[in-house]
Write a structure and sequence with these properties.
The complex is a heterotrimer of chains A (279), B (494) and C (317).
Chain A: H1 2-6, H2 8-29, H3 62-98, H4 100-114, H5 118-129, H6 133-160, H7 163-169, H8 175-211, H9 223-231, H10 238-266, H11 268-278
Helix pairs in contact in A: 2-3, 2-10, 3-4, 3-6, 3-8, 3-9, 4-6, 5-6, 6-8, 8-9, 8-10, 9-10
Chain B: H1 2-23, E1 29-34, H2 49-55, E2 64-66, E3 72-74, E4 77-82, E5 88-93, H3 107-118, E6 133-140, E7 143-148, H4 155-159, E8 185-191, E9 195-200, E10 213-218, H5 222-230, E11 236-237, E12 254-269, H6 279-288, H7 291-299, E13 304-305, H8 328-337, E14 345-350, H9 354-368, E15 373-378, H10 381-390, E16 396-401, H11 422-433, H12 437-454, E17 458-470, E18 473-474, E19 491-492
Parallel strand pairs in B: 1-10, 14-15, 14-16
Antiparallel strand pairs in B: 2-3, 4-5, 5-7, 6-7, 8-9, 9-10, 11-17, 12-16, 12-17, 13-17, 18-19
Helix pairs in contact in B: 6-8, 7-9, 11-12
Chain C: H1 2-28, H2 34-39, H3 45-55, H4 61-73, H5 87-122, H6 127-141, H7 144-158, H8 174-208, H9 211-218, H10 223-253, H11 255-260, H12 266-275, H13 279-307
The chains are: A mainly alpha (279), B alpha+beta (494), C mainly alpha (317).
């Protein structure tokens, strides 16, 4: 508890993120209305007691859609970051620690993956297997791998030339141990910042993919799909874009604040800097 | 002093230029937004409606021309005679017609055009419409006669289609990228992904149109199209997404033109496959469909309900929407009779068209109410063509059949929905070979009735054409009896 | 340094070749037929077969691969299936939009993002820092197609200062062309500027804690001087990485913004070409994108070597 008090950013960000995550999770067991239930006669209703956030162009309950859409957006982005960091960070570290052919291979592999930007991968995956949320995960995840690999390697290289790593080499530590004991902890802050950027980018990328019709498909929904569906009606029914748009903005900000807070909380060197600044 | 004089002269010149601009007659340029860019500009080598939108009756002309009401009018042929057995058509051609590259038009071009359509290596998308032409012969440079192997009821209409526009042997090979025709507008430039520019062809043989320049802008996104219209970046569009039409209704700077198209939207049903080979199941599905909800939800009320695959504005139309009215209880009863008391599961493959995706969601919800659980599968158009159209690998789909008078598809047992009814096939054969109008109407009504009763597909609605135009523009076609956007009648009014 | 560059270049070429081969075979797996797409639902199988032969689709895959690769070495990217025009020309027209758009967006994002990041790091924990970081959070969080639409509604529909979209070719009126790219590049630059500000700030704050800064401070420099003289240069590594990533992201990632502003860019070309199964055009476009992205990475690597000579020896091929 004290820990949280000492890190107000982390607390606010986490609270916001968890709130939305919970909202999404609840949609697994309960939503006010089934999201596939279409009732044309009841479309474009404003918020009232029966529909807290009103209804959309097909008469579906907006509150239910937001809950379900939040879950999809979260899951897509989180899975994509897991894929990206899980594969990218070890690759980047290996490149920095071993150098030579290992580094060459990692760089080529990452160039190779990187040469296929997310949107292109998404277009290809969709053309091959049809559109859907899984493809969005795959496309954004693949795009994340070289991002994490590059950042991990870049960060590790700037650390590797520093004295304390060289000092670590003296007792005869191998590249693997150096990577794990010295490089990984020291680039953690970079990875976390990148992770939060990629997580928020993932939510936005899902929205972008949905915008061009490559993301989540009806009758399932995501915040991006809701925003897309309502965008052409913005001038007539602005409310329909404001609700999912605002949710995306709030989630992304919540995630980023939580990431920043987390970074301050776990990076010992930065705390030291803090102390210096205060002194 | 010199400097002052120069200044005064400059001021006068500027004032002159300004008043000149103010006094200039009506603008003579139009900028039109269209959602889809054509892949090529040769209407005789591709089926995309986007091609005809740009070129039909603008750059290219046929022997006959279809007018706004779908009637056949003279085109490059000024008149024609038909033999008593309906097998020989003799056309008198206009003289003094030139192609945009300056070459003269004569009967040899007509002969070339149809030989190209009928050649073994032809890539014409509608070759089958012209295969009954046995011979095209040049009588003299401005007379040409067609001999048919059997009577074709729609022959003159078919000659007026984009697929049969007259091309010249000198330029036909390059028409895909630099189209050269005989129309009132000549092709200027195509900036791929962006726009096509046309300008008036001054030596045009007929009456010169009011417009001197026209450009087509390709704007796929509805929100972007809305902004482009509101910001005055384009002067209009022939077909605007109905969900945003409300922005322009009641805005005095714009006019909304609601007209008809030839697009019958259907719930395409694979009649080869159980349970859809069972008439009771198809009847149950017909009873489960609430047409009005679909029309309201997917077209914002701009569609017209249909009970058979036939256009409501056609003279041969008969209203069959009451054949299987919306009645979920009747649907459940029929399903039980057919042996599916708890309904069944099926897939619904949807092409990337706004009305199809929306209708699909609504139908899935309506079918769920009677126990039929649909899985929605969104596919790209290329994949739709392969899966549904070519390989018949589907349960249900939603598509609009946009060809004029395309009821004959139901007489083709190999067509994607697989309707095989010998009686119906015989009926269509008789219809195609009948030339007498009253008799044709009688047969067409009989055909519609059979298809409605057999519930071959779910018949949903006739697509509307919803154009949005600058209020000062006039002369646009309100209806779309054939694929195209004819510029010749468009003009600016004050 | 020359040897370093040469080795890097070999890696660059290897990546390209591999990617080209993978792309070729991957796209051959796609369901759908460009000939059927062109001719539509009513065309006879015979007409479709004729068109397939005209498109050169009846040859076996490896023959098509070899002639395609050989052609590209000579600058011949083949003929587009559905547009029946040379692919190279089609791509060149699109690059004339996408490249300037990307460069403008990069410049805008750097001009806004980097100074804000430095200011923020210098004022760490104080009001300007908080204000900048809140703005950066918002900038990252707004979906760019939505932001683009807002820009259009305000500056094109409302104020009528700039066109709502479309593109005037450069040879017609360069000023109009440039005007048409202002709103789209702003829409692209907003999230990138926000990210740059955050990364710059993080990198600067990171180096502040490191030994050489402390040494510099011990020599009597103030924190600000130490960061400016030593920190910014050291912070450049992560910033360069991000810039490289952003350029690569932007060059292909402009498709959404191209849609919002109906620009004839490369992204939209890939999108429509794949839906029409114009595979040779898709392949050519992806190769061009891969060249752009790997070339960017190549340049970033070289710059690494320039910024920090100690790295030259180690990133061996």
């Amino acid at each position: 508890m004290n820990f949280l008090k000492r890190h107000p950013n982390l607390t606010i960000g986490l609270a916001g993120t968890i709130l939305f995550a919970l909202l999404g999770l609840i949609s697994l067991v309960w939503t006010p209305y089934p999201i596939a239930q279409i009732d044309i006669a009841r479309r474009f209703l404003g918020p009232d007691a029966a529909h807290w956030l009103g209804t959309d162009n097909l008469g579906r309950d907006m509150a239910s859609l937001v809950m379900s859409g939040t879950l999809t957006s979260f899951v897509v982005a989180a899975l994509a970051v897991t894929i990206g960091a899980g594969i990218g960070v070890p690759l980047g570290l290996a490149a920095a620690a071993w150098g030579g052919p290992v580094e060459w291979l990692v760089l080529r592999f990452s160039d190779f993956l990187f040469a296929f930007p997310a949107i292109i991968v998404a277009i290809l995956v969709t053309a091959l297997f049809g559109p859907g949320a899984i493809n969005a995960v795959l496309a954004i995840g693949l795009f994340n791998i070289p991002v994490f690999a590059r950042v991990a390697r870049g960060g590790a290289l700037s650390i590797a030339v520093l004295d304390f790593v060289a000092a670590g080499r003296l007792p005869g530590l191998g590249p693997a141990s150096i990577a794990y004991r010295h490089l990984l902890p020291n680039i953690m802050s970079l990875i976390i910042v990148q992770g939060t950027i990629q997580l928020s980018l993932g939510i936005l990328a899902e929205a972008g993919l949905s915008y061009v019709g490559l993301g989540t498909q009806p009758p399932a929904t995501s915040l991006g799909l809701m925003l897309r569906d309502a965008q052409s009606m913005f001038l007539i029914h602005p409310w329909l874009t404001l609700v999912p748009g605002l949710c995306i903005v709030l989630i992304v900000i919540g995630l980023n604040i939580a990431g920043d807070g987390l970074r301050d909380a776990i990076d010992p060197r930065l705390r030291q800097v803090n102390a210096n600044v205060v002194a | 002093m010199g400097r002052i004089l120069t200044g005064a002269a400059l001021a006068l010149a500027v004032a002159g230029a300004l008043s000149g601009a103010a006094l200039a007659q009506q603008p003579t340029e139009v900028r039109i937004g269209v959602a889809l860019e054509p892949p090529i500009l040769d209407p005789t080598a591709g089926a995309a409606e986007a091609i005809d939108i740009v070129v039909y009756q603008n750059i290219f002309e046929g022997l006959t021309a279809i007018d706004e009401n779908g009637a056949v009018q003279p085109g490059l042929a000024s008149s024609w005679t038909i033999s008593d057995d309906s097998l020989t058509y003799t056309f008198k051609l206009h003289e003094g017609v030139t192609f945009h590259d300056g070459t003269a038009f004569d009967a040899d071009d007509v002969k070339f055009t149809f030989e190209r359509i009928l050649a073994a290596d032809s890539v014409n998308a509608h070759k089958e419409l012209y295969t009954d032409i046995a011979e095209v012969s040049v009588v003299d440079p401005f007379t040409v006669s067609f001999t048919l192997s059997k009577p074709v009821g729609l022959f003159l209409f078919n000659l007026g289609r984009g697929d049969a526009v007259i091309v010249a042997p000198e330029s036909a090979g390059n028409n895909a990228t630099t189209p050269i025709g005989t129309g009132p507008f000549a092709f200027v430039q195509w900036d791929k992904g962006n726009r096509v520019l046309l300008e008036r062809y001054e030596p045009y043989w007929g009456e010169l149109p009011a417009l001197t320049k026209a450009s087509y802008r390709f704007i796929g996104d509805t929100a972007a199209m809305t902004s482009a219209l509101l910001a005055g970046d384009i002067d209009g569009t022939n077909n605007f997404a109905p969900d945003s039409l409300a922005v322009f209704e009641g805005n005095p700077q714009f006019k909304v033109l609601v007209g008809t198209t030839e697009g019958e939207t259907i719930l395409g049903t694979n009649n080869r496959k159980p349970p859809f080979d069972n008439l009771k199941v198809r009847q149950a599905m017909a009873h489960a469909i609430d047409r009005q909800a679909i029309i309201d939800g997917a077209t914002y009320g701009y569609g017209t309900p249909i009970g058979a695959p036939f256009a409501p504005h056609n003279a041969y139309y008969t209203d069959l929407t009451g054949t299987y009215p919306y009645d979920p209880d009747a649907a459940k009863a029929l399903l039980a009779e057919a042996g599916y008391p708890d309904g069944f599961n099926a897939t619904l493959k949807l092409p990337p068209l706004g009305y199809a995706r929306l209708s699909g969601q609504i139908i899935a919800s309506q079918f769920a109410a009677v126990g039929i659980k649909l899985e929605l599968i969104n596919v790209e158009f290329a994949q739709w063509l392969q899966d549904v159209y070519t390989n018949h690998d589907f349960d249900l789909t939603i598509i609009s059949h946009v060809e004029p008078f395309d009821i004959g598809n139901y007489a083709n047992p190999d067509y994607y929905f697989g309707y095989d009814n010998p009686d119906f096939q015989a009926l269509i054969k008789t219809l195609n070979e009948t030339v007498d109008d009253a008799k044709r109407k009688e047969l067409a009504i009989e055909a519609q009735t059979i298809l409605a009763k057999d519930a071959v597909n779910g018949y949903l609605f006739e697509l509307a054409q919803t154009g949005v135009w600058n209020a000062k523009l006039a002369g646009m076609w309100q209806n779309s009896p054939i694929e195209g956007l004819v510029l010749r009648g468009i003009y600016w009014v004050e | 340094m020359i040897l370093f560059a040469l080795r890097r270049f070999l890696g660059f070429a290897a990546t390209l070749l591999l990617a080209a081969v993978v792309i070729f075979y991957l796209l051959d797996l796609l369901p759908g037929d460009p000939a059927r797409f062109t001719l539509g639902v009513t065309a006879t199988p015979e007409a479709v077969a004729n068109l397939r032969a005209q498109m050169g689709l009846d040859a076996p895959a490896h023959e098509r691969l070899l002639s395609w690769l050989g052609g590209m070495l000579r600058g011949d990217f083949g003929m587009s299936y559905t547009q029946r025009a040379p692919v190279a020309g089609l791509l060149w027209e699109r690059l004339a939009v996408t490249l300037p758009l990307t460069v403008m967006a990069m410049i805008i994002s750097m001009v806004i993002g980097l100074p804000l990041g430095i200011v923020s790091a210098r004022a760490r924990g104080k009001a300007p820092d908080t204000a900048i970081m809140v703005l950066a959070q918002l900038g990252v969080a707004v979906p760019n197609f939505w932001f683009g639409m807002m820009l259009t509604l305000v500056f094109a529909v409302g104020l009528r200062w700039l066109p709502p979209g479309g593109f005037t070719p450069w040879d017609e009126d360069p000023w109009l062309s440039l005007r048409g790219l202002i709103l789209p590049s702003l829409a692209l630059a907003l999230p990138q500027a926000s990210i740059l500000a955050r990364v710059m700030r993080t990198a600067l704050v990171d180096v502040q804690g490191q030994d050489f800064i402390r040494t510099a401070r011990a020599k009597g420099l103030t924190m600000g001087e130490a960061v400016w003289r030593h920190g910014v240069r050291n912070a450049l590594l992560p910033v360069l990485t991000i810039l490289g990533l952003q350029f690569a992201f932007l060059i292909a990632g402009t498709i959404i913004v191209e849609n919002v502003f109906y620009l004839p860019g490369l992204g939209r070309l890939v999108f429509t070409a794949i839906s029409e199964r114009d595979l040779i055009l898709v392949r050519g476009a992806i190769v061009v994108l891969i060249v752009a992205v790997t070339a960017t990475m190549f340049v970033v690597d070289l710059t690494y070597g320039l910024v920090d000579p100690r790295l030259r020896g180690r990133s061996t091929p």
